[in-house]
Amino acid sequence: MNKFFTLRDGYGTVQALLPDNVSQRFSLDGLAFESILRVRGTVQRRPEGQANKAVPTGEIEIHVSELEVLNQAKKRLPINVKDHNRAKENLRLEHRYIDLRNRDLQHNLRLRSQVIMKMRECMINDYGFVEVETPTLFRRTPGGAQEFVVPSRKAGHFYSLVQSPQQFKQMLMVGAIDRYFQIARCYRDESTRPDRQPEFTQLDIEMSFTDREKVIELIEQVLRKSWPYRDNPISGSFPRMTLADAMERFGSDKPDTRFGYELQNLSAAIGTQITVPAGVRQQDFRTYGIVIRAAEARKLPTGLKKTLEEIAKKSNFCKFTQSKITPDWTTGPIARLLGQEAAEALSAQLSLQTDDLLLLGWGKQSYVQNMMGRIRLAAYDALEERELVPKRQSHAHNFLWVVDFPMFSENEETGQIESTHHPFTAPHPDDAAALTGFSSLENIYTIRSQAYDLVWNGVEIGGGSIRIHNSQLQRMVLQDVLRIEHAHLHHLLDALDSGAPPHGGFAIGLDRYVALLCNAASIREVIAFPKSLDGKDPLSKAPVPISEEEKRIYHIQVVE
User: Fold this and answer.
1) Which residues contact residue 360 at a Cβ distance below 8 angstroms, ignoring those fewer than 6 apart?
2) Per-residue model confidence as pLDDT tens digits over 111-163
3) Cα separations (Å) of 359 from 297, 312, 362?
4) Domain for residue 298, yes or no?
5) What is the CATH number of the domain that holds 8?
6) Helices and strands in the chain: count of H runs, count of E runs
7) What pTM did the predictor assign?
8) pLDDT of residue 3
9) E strand or H helix at 400, and its extent?
């Protein structure tokens, strides 16, 4: 009717009204959506009964006096800007410059900027940190994630994009930059892993003359100061849990503590009646259970059984069963599996009642803990979906420090020793003597490190450690324990030989953390120009072939 239109920018929308005397001068007919306009007019209250309280500007409108089309959009854009029924993600990524106009992406990117600004202010103004930019082009570092290789003009010589500024920040400590941070870009070739980006951002921190307590206190304060929701502020210190406790109670090194249904260790009650899976030593054998009480169990979807069995099928060295409790349960089929005596002991320990559902897993300790942790989450998802339990709040303050990680772990595929975090992590003070005098591989896995992870609502949002600052100890870890050829680390080892202060640090994964703050389904929703699931860029179509001339300059020959 050539009367109304809505103007939208990065801050919201407003209704514009063309009065009769103005509508004769301007025609909106044929003007494409998403065109860029400049409007002059007066802000006026909407007529009685026409206010729209669902939008912030719903009580006012602009009475237009002047209207200018600065740039007309083409008639049919490849995607529409709307909150619901949006285009498929790949199409939105291809035309991200239009997709960015969506309200949720505007909110996410602006909130991200606000959080990072407050983190910077806290680090610099409150704690005297120095922001230092470290190189992106570095040398190959064996071990860890797959790195991106960058060719140089020298035949057969390559840079690598840094996985993290780890070595640089340790050398900054040697160089007396005693409080360092940066908003660091990191690169890992992990395109096959879900919800990962080949390039990502972290708040990277390192301090000299520090210990675990000081690092933890700093990180808690940075999160408190940068928390964007003033009506729901973070208060108090975050609780702590050892890794052993987290695995024993929740079956995860990043436990979601917003709900119960904790694992129950049933090894003593069951004894040795149950068959130990092949390849599991008796001393590593454990049994865990989770009970869903009758009131909820009766209403569970029938498909849950298959879901849990699928999880169990993917778990090595362990077995799983689910059993509904009946009046004669201790003499029924479960007795053939456990023996009647063990079934009765189990029933007594768990106070089982008719129609309760028992989820039971047994096998190699770490494997069965992991399996039962995944089963716990899947079972709660099903309960939550049916509204049988309280819904988990996305901004609940369930922050948790997980501490006392083992310094070394066994690679599940190769059986080789590897660092649980990275080779520069210092041993726990109580276990330092055991490391320097280790005599067998059995002992090596009991040595704890000074590593610590921060978990929020079941998601790891950061990790750090106190570092090894003694070059002899660092060489011994690399050479004698991990058996890593370390010529490529000569610069770091030389630095540690040059008078390195005790130091430690932390890194917060900003993409993941901001995605949680925004309640976003994926980290791609908080990154302006993300890559797709396969690591490609739908916008520019990168990676792309290069010319023969460029191949010649960089000594590249393509082999199919």
Assistant:
1) 266, 287, 288, 289, 320, 321, 322, 323
2) 999 999 999 999 999 999 999 999 999 998 876 788 999 999 999 999 999 99
3) 11, 11, 10
4) yes
5) 2.40.50.140
6) 19, 21
7) 0.91
8) 86
9) strand 399-403
